[in-house]
Amino acid sequence: MRKADIKRKTRETDITLDLDLDGKGESKIDTGCGFLNHMLELFAKHGRFDMDLKCVGDMDVDAHHTVEDVAIVLGQGFDKALGTRQGITRYGDIILPMDEALVLAAVDISARAHLSCGLSIPSQKVGDFDTELAKEFFEGFSRASGICIHLKQFSGENSHHIIEAAFKAFARALKKAVSMESGFENDIPSTKGMIV
């Protein structure tokens, strides 16, 4: 049962999350930010994660606190659902095309948070969404989950396509990394004998 329920309330956001790592990609997302909703829906779909996420945030200010705090809660959810990390594959990677955009995502569920974000997004906004918040999302997720994330863009001109490719690639890489490795269900994938 690799599931997690997370609640986080601050002066800026009030967030609830129900997460199932072994789902079918079904999601119910309401963050108050349309573009973030879109990215999280495709994240759930491509990762085959079932997610019910609700955020009430200070969108009258901007989307910064919402994006950052949603990432933190989602990262905490993955951390909790993974438990001891016993039996997981641990590593995952993919190079994913989205029309003219091509993005690599590679992850290591290592308990050592790190983000290397090599995205070059040409516009400052996609609709009302500040594109610099894409990096904020991945950074918040990495810190809260202890997962090492590398994103590298090989091509892309359309900001929406670049960000969407990054979220899809991240989901697909993470899906591989959290998957159970056949024949090693009782094994911790580390020579230390633990991932901490």
Write a brief structural summary.
With 196 residues, the chain is of the alpha+beta class. It has helices at residues 34-47, 64-82, 133-145, 159-178, and strands at residues 3-9, 13-20, 27-30, 50-57, 91-98, 101-109, 114-118, 125-126, 129-130, 147-155. It is globular, with a radius of gyration of 16 Å.
Description:
The strands form 3 sheets. The chain has a 4-stranded mixed β-sheet, with helices on one face. The chain is built from 4 helices and 10 strands. The chain is α+β, with helices and mostly antiparallel strands and 196 residues long. The model has no long low-confidence stretch (mean pLDDT 95). α1 (34-47) runs parallel beside α4. It has one domain: Ribosomal Protein S5, domain 2 (2-Layer Sandwich). 34% of the residues lie in helices and 32% in strands.
- Flag low-confidence runs: none
Q: Hey, roughly how much beta strand do the residues contain? A: 25-35%
Gyration radius (Cα, Å) is: 16 Å
Q: Specify the overall morphology.
A: globular
Number of helical segments with 4 or more residues: 4
- By oligomeric state, this entry counts as single chain
- CATH class annotation: Alpha Beta
